[in-house]
Amino acid sequence: MDLINDLLKIIGDFIAGIINSIFGFSPFLADLVTMGLAAVMLCTFAALSFMGLTYVERKVVARIQDRVGPNQAGPFGLLQPIADGIKMFTKEDTTPATADRWVYNLAPLVIAVFALTTYAVLPFAPGVVGTNLNVGVFYIIAMGSGSIVAIIMAGWGSNNKYALLGAFRTVAQLVGYEVPMLLNVLPVVMITGSLSLVDIINQQTTLNGNPGIPFIVFFPFSALVFLISGIAETGRSPFDLLEAESEIVAGFHVEYSGMKFALFFLGEYVNALAVAFVFSTLFLGGYAGPVLPPYIWLMLKAAVVFFIFMWLRGTLPRVRVDQMHNLNWKFFVPVSIVHLVVVMALMKLFVTSPALAQANGGVLVTPGAQAAILFVASLLILIGSLAVVARRARILRLQEAAVLEQRRAENIAAVSA
Amino acid sequence: MQNLLNGIPLWWYLVVSAALFCIGLYAVLARKNAIALLMGVELMLNAANINLLAFWRYLTPASSGGLAFAAFVLVIAAAEAAVGLALIVSVYRITRSIDPEKLDQMKL
Amino acid sequence: MTNSEIMTIHQALFIVMALAVLGSAIFVVTTSNLFRAALMLILTFFGIAGLFVLLDIGLFAVAQVLIYIGAISILIIFAVMLTRGMQGMVPRNSQAVAAAVTAGIIFAVLLLLFGPFRVTVDVARWPVFSLFAGNASPRDVGGIAWTPPNQPIPAMPETYIADFGRSLVDGNQYLLPFLLIAFLVDVVLAGAIFIARQRRPAEIIEDRRRQAEEAAEEAEAMRQAGMTPDVAPLPEGAVASTAEH
């Protein structure tokens, strides 16, 4: 059982052992080679999952939209990603004559690099983590903001007005949605008392000696807002305004072809998968789970989250620019701040550790009771804010309908006159 | 030679920060574009931050004074960039120019 | 792990970072292509984040990436895009040489202050200074030992992030500056929105009308005072026509 549970760790230790025996004369060199190899393995994992995800996404979206999806290359179209890869490699690599060449050529690299560096701090199983950074959560959000730079580089470097429009939209969207993302990571960080992803998972595994509760139970509001902001951050449908094909043809990557385009695609999918992993880690308990080995649990949770992404993509129409900004600045940010304050006060009021209760006062409760209290509070905020928004939307809809009705009446009068 | 951190003496950081500060100063004195001027200011603030954090780490890592001041510098740099760029864009809209030498009137 | 190897690797990393920082900074201040200058500024910020990593302050390395690269650089690039008409102008003004010399002199002074170099200054031998200070004795300048010699660098506490956080809300430490900074950010948020806001056409028309009225009143007052106005009085209907725009 241990062999299966710690499979990744055992393999890793085995490879590290081999490397250590080869480079025994210089431990530093051995460390360097081990780290390099680990980095290559992580990147390979991300790239391979990108290939798999494109296939799965096309199949799932096709099923949702009552189509078949790829079915020609190999059994069930399983070889489609490889066919796509060959097509991408052999396509002509064009560069616009007026492009800013350096910027244009660097942009795909930058986006891929920023997307892949996120994986350095993700814990895949106990002891299997690139580096247990003590500012892990902060690091992931910072690296996520790096892809904005790449998209702007692509948009400006292409010297194309659609690309520039895409870049403008990108700035507004990605910078904006970073705010609710950070605001909703904060409750998790506050209850854990640490920015390290490993500590966050440990907290969800055991809560003061009791079996842990995933943080989605503590903060359903934060989980929901984090998920939606994550979709917006990675520019996936229904927030794919930065590359909306039907409005600005393909946004920032309209001029790219061949492998450069593939790198953009890779960056997008790898980012989305990273958001799925981070969501599973922050709110679903990461690799923690009974019976199955930990890495399988993490993959399962990430797969479920990614399936939600695909589901949304298959069913929802693209939002308008103003709707996107209204959702962020008029709903997510203010309500997140209210939620943060309420949760903070409740966590000070109902404490689980006796030492803290003695030091700062407050009511001593069991972790389960604290979870229940926070769950109710978070859910009440969510339902209350949704009710307000629904009411407001209804009023706006009625106004719009009245205007349309009036215009229709005017038109009829004009025609009859 | 005991006073090294990761094999690096303190003065390396100080010299880099001094050089960065002077590069920023040159930009502030010599550039003709208000945005480039602002970039120079950012470089100077960053140089100050390197100094603050290097001194903090080498001399008094037990207290958090250096971190606090570096954080304040960070926030002020962000605020300055926001207001400065808003002003520049606004001025550009009115005068179609952001050459600081041409902006010599009290009234636009 | 022998010590000498570790040292060389960290030192090599430092040198690479420092060269990246300084090289890209020089590019930033010399190029005429503002967009590329902004991109190189990002490289500068990244190198500085690397320096913070070498200082073992991961928190500020990440904050550097998040705030400088994720926010300030983006803002600067945005401003460059919005002022596209200013692309390709001469990057330097007429005082560039003087500025370079000034920066160079300040750098030399800072080098003496920060670096380990000692220079003997003999003022009495300098051409002009000798007139005023002919009998000054030569003295050594520079080479200050900033770290106490032969003492290990104090270890950084493991919980430095939590300590830092507490010090910001501790009434005995940095609570007041923290509140002031928070207030500053509030004001800046409102101010930046107010300045950069696209003004509605009605407001612009209102402004023009007021300006025209003021000018007319001024001219009227001057005429009544018996002076010739230096601007021609506005023709009748000018106010109305601007209002119609």
TrEMBL record, chain A:
UniProt keyword list: Cell membrane, Membrane, NAD, Quinone, Translocase, Transmembrane, Transmembrane helix, Ubiquinone
Q: What is the name attached to this protein's record?
A: NADH-quinone oxidoreductase subunit H
Q: Which residues cross the membrane?
A: 7-29, 35-56, 102-125, 137-158, 179-201, 213-232, 269-289, 295-312, 332-351, 371-390
Q: Which reaction does it catalyse?
A: a quinone + NADH + 5 H(+)(in) = a quinol + NAD(+) + 4 H(+)(out)
What family does the entry list? Belongs to the complex I subunit 1 family.
Assembly and interactions? NDH-1 is composed of 14 different subunits. Subunits NuoA, H, J, K, L, M, N constitute the membrane sector of the complex.
State the compartments where it is located. Cell membrane; Membrane
TrEMBL record, chain C:
Q: Where in the cell is it found?
A: Cell membrane
GO CC list: plasma membrane
The annotated topology with respect to the bilayer is:
Multi-pass membrane protein
Residue ranges of the TM segments: 12-30, 37-59, 65-84, 96-117, 174-196
Q: Which GO terms describe its molecular function?
A: NADH dehydrogenase (ubiquinone) activity; quinone binding
Q: What main location does UniProt list? A: membrane
Region annotated Disordered sits at: 215-245
**Reaction it catalyzes:** a quinone + NADH + 5 H(+)(in) = a quinol + NAD(+) + 4 H(+)(out)
Which keywords belong to this entry?
Cell membrane, Membrane, NAD, Quinone, Transmembrane, Transmembrane helix
Q: What is its EC number?
A: 7.1.1.-
The record ties this protein, via InterPro entries, to: NADH_UbQ/plastoQ_OxRdtase_su6, Nuo/plastoQ_OxRdtase_6_NuoJ
* Similarity comment: family membership: Belongs to the complex I subunit 6 family.
* Task of the protein: NDH-1 shuttles electrons from NADH, via FMN and iron-sulfur (Fe-S) centers, to quinones in the respiratory chain. Couples the redox reaction to proton translocation (for every two electrons transferred, four hydrogen ions are translocated across the cytoplasmic membrane), and thus conserves the redox energy in a proton gradient.
Q: What is this protein called?
A: NADH-quinone oxidoreductase subunit J
Q: Which organism is it from?
A: Candidatus Thermofonsia Clade 3 bacterium
Q: What is the lineage of its organism?
A: Bacteria, Bacillati, Chloroflexota, Candidatus Thermofontia, Candidatus Thermofonsia Clade 3
